[in-house]
What we know:
Elements: H1 4-12, H2 17-26, H3 41-44, H4 50-53, E1 61-62, E2 66-67, E3 73-76, E4 80-86, E5 91-94, E6 100-103, E7 106-116, E8 122-123, E9 130-138, E10 144-154, H5 158-164, E11 174-180, E12 192-198, E13 206-213, E14 217-220, H6 221-228, E15 247-249
Parallel strand pairs: 1-8, 2-15, 10-13, 10-14
Antiparallel strand pairs: 3-6, 4-5, 4-11, 5-7, 6-7, 7-9, 9-10, 12-13, 12-15
Helix pairs in contact: 1-2
Amino acid sequence: MYRRNLIKGLVAVGACPICAEAASAADTHWGYAGPDGPEHWADLDTKNVACSAGTQQSPIDIIGAVRADIPRMAIGWHKGGGKMMNNGHTVQISMPEGSTLTRGDRVYDLMQFHFHAPSEHHVSGKGFPMEAHFVHKNSEGNALGVLGVFLAPGAPNASFASLAAAFPLRAGEEVAVDEVDPNGLLPASLGYWTYEGSLTTPPCTENVEWMVAMEPVEVGAADVKRFTSLYPLNARPIHSPNRRFILGLN
């Protein structure tokens, strides 16, 4: 996940110790192919040891999920202005304060969301053209909760189309977006799978609570191409679940 601007801001206010580790690692050059690719991330910086030694790494292939009585998600995201940046690894939209995801007695604040192509998670061996990651921080602690939503070509999606039309084309370029509505990227059903995982980029920090929506969201094929023209491959390979439980709620 692409958190450089978010995590540096949180570090500055002392809000997120786990983010301090990620901010430091974000300054080390890494990529998705060649000597800087995922199989070498742990060699690029000593802070990235979890990328190779961790036992709860993400993403995973969601298979053999157990139907369970887990809390339903309640989404309290608000439309508003934000900042969209091409950070050299993805396009990331940083959100203003006030949007939340509630799951049982846990309340998470939405910090940012970004995109991967193809999807990082798979379902029974099948991937999707894209995946959006909505990155949250627990409002009463430092735990991170990430909601993954699969994106598939189909009917145009107004929220995604408005972002795609303004994607910054160069790494390091940032633009203001006046009307960001993350709700438009939610599926009609909030059924989801959940498991304990990690960040999917260096330093691959674990103890991240993952929620992956079961229902994909359709977006316009031309808008998918606008992203893949910038980032045709920015997905970390699948990792072993290592006997982790994957729980599901339809």
